[in-house]
Write a structure and sequence with these properties.
The protein is of the alpha/beta class. It contains twelve helices and twelve strands.
Length: 303
C-alpha cells in the first residue's frame, strides 16, 4: 500500500470544501488530476471515501473515520518541519547582544564560548555599550537583548535579574590598605576615588545613603570605561570601586582588590529585552541559555 502526502492533502481539501472543483483550485490541479489522486488513495485503502454527485461530494462513513487521522498526519509533518527549521536557526542564526564593557570583556565571552560548544554555527555579536546605550540598542532593535546592571525601566523593556556582583575596593599593590582582608566604606571614602559615569556614581551614592547619611561619595574624577579607571589607578592617580567581576582584569594592571563592608553593596546584573519584539529562535536559544548559566553562578566564580 503506497499512500502519498499529496493524496492525503487532496483528500482533506475535498472533505473541507465538499467539492472536487474548489479543492482542485486550491491545490492548483485540474479536477481530473485531483480525482485521480483520490481514486489512488481509495484504491490503496480499499474503501470509498466520498459519495459524489454532480454538485457536491460528501464523506462516507469510512471517509469520516479517516479525516481526523489525515489531519493529524499533516499537522505532525508541519510541526516536524517547523522544529527542524527552528533547530537550524538556533544553530546558525545571528544574535546581537548589547552588553556593558565590564561584562562584555569578562563574563559574556566565557559564556558564549560555552554556548558555541553545542551551537558551533551560531553567529553571536557582542555590542559593547555603556549602560544607557544598552537600553537604546535593545529599544531600537539593533540588539536582540542586552546585559546591564538592573535599573528602573520606563519603556516597554523587560528585565530578568541574574546575579549579584559585590562592589570591591581597587588599589595599587603597595597601597596602605592592600594587605587587609576587607575595608569599610568609611575608610574607602577618605581615598581619592576615580568613579564611573553619573549613572553608576548616583546609584552608588543612593546605596550608601540608605545605610548612613555620613557616607558621602565625592570622586575626584568620573570616567566612562572601567579600563580607564584601572589604568589611572595603576599609575597612582587614585583608587576606584568596581563590581567583583572586574577581578580577572586586575592582573594586567598589577592592582589589588578587597571587599568593602559596612555596608556590603552589590549590583544586580540583568538580561534586558524588548517586550514588543519577539526573539528569533537563535536569540531565544542564547537568551534562555544565559538565564540558566548566570543564575547558577556564585559570587566566587561570576567573573
Amino acid at each position: 500500500m503506497k499512500i502519498t502526502l499529496k493524496q492525503v492533502k487532496a483528500f482533506t481539501l475535498v472533505a473541507e470544501n465538499n467539492s472536487f472543483v474548489e479543492a482542485a483550485n486550491q491545490i492548483h490541479l485540474t479536477s481530473a488530476a485531483l480525482s485521480s489522486l483520490i481514486k489512488q488513495l481509495e484504491d490503496s485503502l480499499n474503501v470509498r471515501l466520498f459519495d459524489r454527485t454532480t454538485r457536491t461530494s460528501q464523506l462516507t462513513a469510512a471517509g469520516k473515520d479517516f479525516y481526523p487521522l489525515a489531519i493529524k498526519v499533516l499537522e505532525d509533518l508541519e510541526h516536524a518541519v517547523e522544529s527542524i527549521r527552528d533547530i537550524n536557526l538556533k544553530k546558525s542564526g545571528v544574535v546581537r547582544v548589547a552588553c556593558t564593557p565590564l561584562y562584555s570583556s569578562t563574563l559574556l565571552p566565557r559564556l558564549i564560548a560555552k554556548y558555541k560548544l553545542d551551537h558551533p554555527l551560531a553567529n553571536i555579536y557582542i555590542l559593547d555599550s555603556l549602560n544607557q546605550q544598552v537600553l537604546k540598542r535593545v529599544t531600537s532593535g539593533e540588539a536582540d537583548f542586552g546585559i546591564a546592571p538592573e535599573r528602573q525601566l520606563e519603556t516597554d523593556l523587560e528585565q530578568i535579574s541574574l546575579l549579584k556582583d559585590q562592589i570591591y575596593f581597587i588599589c595599587k599593590k603597595d597601597h596602605v590598605l592592600s594587605k587587609l582582608k576587607h575595608v569599610s566604606w568609611k575608610r574607602v571614602l577618605e581615598e581619592p576615588i576615580i568613579s564611573l559615569t553619573d549613572d553608576f556614581t548616583r546609584q552608588l551614592q543612593l546605596d550608601l545613603s540608605h545605610h548612613s547619611s555620613q557616607l558621602v561619595l565625592r570622586p575626584i574624577q568620573k570616567v566612562s570605561l572601567i579600563t580607564t579607571a584601572l589604568g589611572m589607578v595603576s599609575w597612582g592617580l587614585g583608587v576606584t570601586v568596581q563590581p567583583q567581576s572586574v577581578l580577572p582584569l586586575l592582573k594586567s594592571f598589577q592592582l589589588a582588590a578587597l571587599p568593602i563592608r559596612d555596608p556590603i553593596i552589590t549590583r544586580r546584573l540583568s538580561l534586558i529585552s524588548n517586550g514588543n519584539q519577539e526573539l528569533t529562535p537563535a536569540a531565544k536559544s542564547l537568551y534562555e541559555f544565559l538565564i540558566i548559566e548566570m543564575k547558577a553562578l556564585k559570587p566566587c566564580n561570576q567573573a
